[in-house]
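Q: Okay, next protein. This is PhyH-domain-containing protein from Lindgomyces ingoldianus. I've checked the sequence twice, so it should be correct. Can you predict the 3D structure?
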Amino acid sequence: MQPSSPPDSNTYSHLPEPTTDVDQVKRDLREFGYGFVKDALAPEQLAALQKRLKGQADGEVAAGVAYFDGGPKKPNQRIWNLPNKGQEFLDLLEHPLVEEFMPDFLGDGYHLSSYTANINRPGSKGMGMHTDQITINPAIPQYPLGLNLMWFLTDVNEENGGTRILPKSHNGLVAPDNMFDITGTTFASGPAGTCLVFESRLWHATGPNVAKEGERPVILQFYVRHFVRPQENFTLSIATDVEAKLGDAAKQALGFRVTATLGGVEGFRPDGTLVQKPEKPVVALKADGSRL
């Protein structure tokens, strides 16, 4: 069956709204492909993440390593590989919502594909509509291969670039006629501290920012099933000193956990084993056991 053109978003009898009822968010996720957890971040954690992300963004500009996008003038700044960039980001990997959603929707052994931040600023032109499952092959449409947690570090609305969403497009029955046409979409909206949860088959896009001032920073954790190759190769890109202080939940998230027969080091390791780079890997040897 070919997907149909999007209906007008006003035709829906209701759409997901921020709520503290996690079970309702799960129902929204299954029906619409997305949902909002209100007050997901405690005030002190929200403040710590705001401060650390701002500091990192300014530091990357000063060091000449900042990455910008969002249109010809490139007003937006993206921060990659957040585990290396502050304890605050490692702490967020331990947030209860990770364990609340990931096993239900992705099964055992889920891990991070990417962990980034997007600072959307006035003048941003937004993105083309897409699904996060497009880059995963084979593109299995029957169930989600990934799930996003988007953490709002400020109030998010249509004006400041709230993510455009095509409701119910995760089921394959609705798709945009043109990736640059936002007909039928709604926008992510919620107060600072909200977590937008959406699955990888949902059509969505960063919204244009038409605000006159300020910025819209969000943190994105994209988790995938255990057999999906991640976008960021965390087992190589994590700094040595950061790896040394990872907790078990962070190690699983970053790909250091064996699931079934996948992810072992030096051959088979029991399911659930947390691995690390061996200090003395087995290399080419002579018949007497000495190194070749």
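A: Here is a summary of the prediction. The chain has one domain: 9-253. The first strand starts at residue 34 and ends at 37.
Q: Noted. On to the next one.
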